[in-house]
Amino acid sequence: MMGRVLLAAPFPLLATPAAAATGQPVNPWVALAYLVSGVFFILALRGLSSPVSSRTGNRFGMIGMLIAVVTTLVTHDVANIVEILIAIAIGALIGVTIARRIAMTAMPELVAAFHSLVGLAAVMVGWAAYLNPGAFGLLMHDGGIEAVSKVEMGLGIGIGAITFSGSVIAFLKLSGRMSGSPILLPARHVINLGTLAAIVVLTALFALAAPQATLPLIVGLTVLAFVIGFLLIVPIGGADMPVVVSMLNSYSGWAAAAMGFTLGNTAMIITGALVGSSGAILSYIMCRAMNRSFLSVIAGGFGADASAAGGEAREQRPYKQGSAADAAFMLEQAEKVIIIPGYGMAVAQAQHALREMADMLEEKGVEVKYAIHPVAGRMPGHMNVLLAEAQVPYENVFELEDINSEFAQADVAFIIGANDVVNPAAKTDKSSPIYGMPVFDVDKAKQVFFIKRSMGGVGYAGVDNEVFYMDQTMMLLADAKKMVEEIVKAMD
After folding, report:
1. Terminus of the chain with fewer CB atoms < 10 Å: N or C?
2. What does the domain layout of the chain look like in residue ranges?
3. Strands annotated E in 124-272
4. What is the C-alpha separation between 460 and 271, in angstroms, rounded?
């Protein structure tokens, strides 16, 4: 049925290569509809660039997708519209249910799971086009599919399979079902490069092969693409997982664009190109923020080494532990407080209590600012969304490069659930897996309050934090929400 939904339409530019070859006229209204949907997708990306306009951006994306889907259904020879509408209704019900039930802390793994579905869809569409090329209006040559169409098909299947298996591994790591530490296979570089080379060779052979010889080639291509997706993500450690999520988002876009060429569908090409390019740009920006090599992350942990995989045994060291009353007293005496939220705040859902604490401090004349790391919360924008949910004023939220110089003038650095993004090892320990990643200079603040559940846990990168043991650090060991609520009570 999938093949019939997207089969040859009477509008060649927007339908299939076969239709274009017949010289049929292009319907300008369909072209306009796809163009409008593309504009809405661009506006959606623009809106999502800021928490202030993110809701509007989401609405633009929904409108653009609605226009694209309706246009495709109206202008194509659909086998059974009732079946299509039932499938849409089931998908919508599943989507609404997940959106209502999913916790904000589970958003990174949810995004990875959705990416896997996009990749799998690309694989299925590619195989459907291969098994029934006539239904997709693919150009035929000597009884087989044209070489250019087979290249597009191979790319779509290959990228889609890599996206699927890679996203599954990312989901397992982010959700805690699999260790976040890098899993370094022996001779992994040779294996990865060899597998990628084999995929390229199989794609070329598939494009050039006679019709009767193509089946083993496309099967081998698909299997190896699934395998390399697994191999690329397994060696990547927890510190790099935010980049992986963004990178897989880019892969899913390119898979959709490749399938758009196979199907001759302009909307898929536009949408896939937008997702692919924006995901690639975001991945590059995040790599710069973490001082990581973009190419090494794409290559699946080429920059990882054995020291990053295991982690060393932690030494028992003395630290200062304080109470909510101690923190409340010192916060009230401060002139400037910088709050650094992290994944622990998200897990405890402490953002509303944190906003209440900040409001009370501001009423007492204390200047309060929030510092957000580009990869805080395992996904870009995670902390911004949580703070926006708690109605924290946008003008009080600052990125790392805009506020890092202010820690030297801060009376208190209030760390709630963050860890890796404030770890000085990123600047001092060349053997650390986070070495080179820009971090907040909390060690320059006069006083540091560090909220975490216990001293037994470490950050997602799995390394100890020197900040725990500094002279000016007071550890507040408790659930983040409970601790902040106790601080608020102590300030009444």
Report:
1. C
2. 1-101, 106-310, 324-491
3. 140-141, 144-145
4. 33
The DSSP letter of residue 312 is P
Report how far residue 171's alpha carbon sits from residue 102's, in angstroms, rounded to the nearest whole number.
14
Q: Residue 320: left if φ>0, alpha if ψ -120 to 50, beta else—which one?
A: beta
Rounded to an integer, what distance in angstroms lies between the CA atom of residue 422 and that of residue 466? 9
- Report the SS3 class of residue 368: strand
- pLDDT at position 444, please? 93
Dist. CA 466–CA 404, nearest whole Å: 18
Q: 319: burial class by Cβ within 10 Å (0-12, 13-18, 19+)?
A: middle
- Rg over alpha carbons for the chain, rounded to the nearest Å, is 26
Tokens 């009230």, residue?
332
**CATH code for the structural domain at 324-491:** 3.40.50.1220
For 451: left if phi > 0, alpha if psi spans -120 to 50, otherwise beta; the answer is beta
Q: Are 125 and 133 in contact (CB under 8 A)?
A: no
Other Cβ atoms less than 10 A from the Cβ of 1: the count is 11
Which 8-state DSSP code applies to residue 467?
G
192-201, 301-310, 364-373, 397-406: least confident range: 301-310
Active centre residues (catalytic): 420
pLDDT tens figures, 396-412: 999 888 999 999 999 99
What sign does the dihedral 287-293-295-298 (CA atoms) show?
A: negative
Predicted TM-score of the model (pTM)? 0.74
Calpha distance 29→254 (Å, rounded): 27
* DSSP notation for 373-404: -TTGGGSTTHHHHHHHHTT--GGGEEEHHHHG
Angstrom distance (rounded) from CA 61 to CA 353:
32
- Reference 20, options 149, 130, 208; nearest CA is 149
**Confidence label for 306 from pLDDT (cuts 50, 70 and 90):** very low
